[in-house]
């Protein structure tokens, strides 16, 4: 599903942010659509696991695949140098999602694409009466979003053409940097 949103980045540089074990990084590198794929994570342990999976995959060429340890809120890329950023099941784990999306917007080239999957509030947790509970949990673990909050974060950070696909509590979002 993410590949459809990432089509405008074909031939360019793609960052798989918070790549974890590198499942998507490896798939992006294997598909051959990108000149380069960066598997990026803050965790050395996750990057080590990603590296081990890469070594085991004899069909995977590493010519266009790099592993980078970095904070999502301080990316080591020049402004406007990246064609796409993918963040699979990651936004809710970032300490400051708005700061991270602003940084993603900074590194995207004009027309560059941001695609992410995360979880949104659903059912009783989406009701205003549950706000104190949500705030207490968020301080200890992960961020919980309302669908509208994700759109607001993207727009506040200068991204346009926001779209989403939602299936219960799962959501995939896409936005791009204006030309």
Describe what you observe in this structure:
With 179 residues, the chain is α/β, with parallel strands linked by helices. It has six helices and seven strands; from the N terminus they run αβαβαββαβααββ. Strands 3-2-1-4-5-7-6 form a seven-stranded mixed beta sheet, sandwiched between helices. Strand 6 (160-167) and strand 7 (170-176) form a beta hairpin. The mean pLDDT is 90.
* Spatial sequence of strands, sheet with the most strands: 3-2-1-4-5-7-6
Summed over residues and divided by their number, the pLDDT gives a mean of: 90
The residue ranges in which pLDDT falls below 50 over 5 or more consecutive positions are none
User: Which series of helices and strands comes N to C?
Assistant: HEHEHEEHEHHEE
Largest beta-sheet characterization: 7 strands, mixed
Number of strands: 7
Strand fraction equals 25-35%
Our Rg estimate from Cα atoms comes to 16 Å
